[in-house]
Amino acid sequence: MMQTPQPSQSFAPGSVRFVGAGPGNPDLLTIAALRALQTAEVVLHDRLISPDILALAGPAARLIETGKTGFGPAMKQQEINALIVEHALSGARVVRLKSGDATVFGRLDEEIDACDAAHIDWSIVPGITAASAAVAAIGQSLTRRGRNSAVRLITGHDVEGYADHDWAVLARPGEVAAIYMGLRAARFLQGRLIMHGADRSTPVTLVANASRPDQQVLPTTLDRLTDDLAQAELSGPVLTLFGLAPRAAEAALAELTKERA
């Protein structure tokens, strides 16, 4: 049973808040997310949540890592659902803390369904998604008049699901996509797009740990994507921006093209 999330709304015992923790920098938490953390009694958090954000939880809060990350060891979704329900039914104020925004590739619906089945009240506190933080890091916008009026949010975690995308549309000039968890699927991405006629010189930028002190930015092209990745030492969560270059690099390329004309 959904409750409309408001920053001042009381956090009732025996209820769950699905909270977006943002991209990792605690300065990018919403006020509502901070208040939920400070009043939570149990925090079930993703492995990639930064220690600085976990430190904002109330001193009495029990922190439980749910252990889902990339292609490595993972707690099964059914186990996470069971933990959420178990702690809420015990009367605790439960925060399910997810990286970025809980509504973007966060398996939110499965966890909400578990709450509904157990008649547990829940609400959603949105957060800044990784695509927004990554594009801010390179001084660009996800959409721009005259270039693209739409942007695709894609997950590269499931390579089989990858095959279902309309690659011919994405391969058209001017298209932009933000690809989550796509590091290990980079070769697949490159091959599909080139196969469907994408310009090999299309800019691709990878941003690791967007917004955090250890943020890394790797500008490349579709043609050089896998080669440059093999030489780079990117660690942590990586978001791939297809069709976008850092603003400074884009300006330098435009100037070079003008000189050659």
TrEMBL record:
Record keyword Transferase present: yes
InterPro entries attached to this UniProt entry: 4pyrrol_Mease (IPR000878), 4pyrrol_Methylase_sf (IPR035996), 4pyrrole_Mease_sub1 (IPR014777), 4pyrrole_Mease_sub2 (IPR014776), CobA/CysG_C (IPR006366), Siro_Cobalamin_biosynth (IPR050161)
First-level EC class: transferase
UniProt entry keywords in alphabetical sequence: Methyltransferase, Porphyrin biosynthesis, S-adenosyl-L-methionine, Transferase
Pathway as given in its UniProt record: Porphyrin-containing compound metabolism; siroheme biosynthesis; precorrin-2 from uroporphyrinogen III: step 1/1
Span of the signal peptide: none
Gene3D superfamilies: Cobalt-precorrin-4 Transmethylase, Domain 1, Methyltransferase, Cobalt-precorrin-4 Transmethylase, Domain 2
Enzyme Commission no: 2.1.1.107
Single biological process term from Gene Ontology: siroheme biosynthetic process
Any GO MF annotation of the entry: uroporphyrin-III C-methyltransferase activity
Family: Belongs to the precorrin methyltransferase family.
Protein name in UniProt: uroporphyrinogen-III C-methyltransferase
Organism expressing this protein natively: Pseudodonghicola xiamenensis
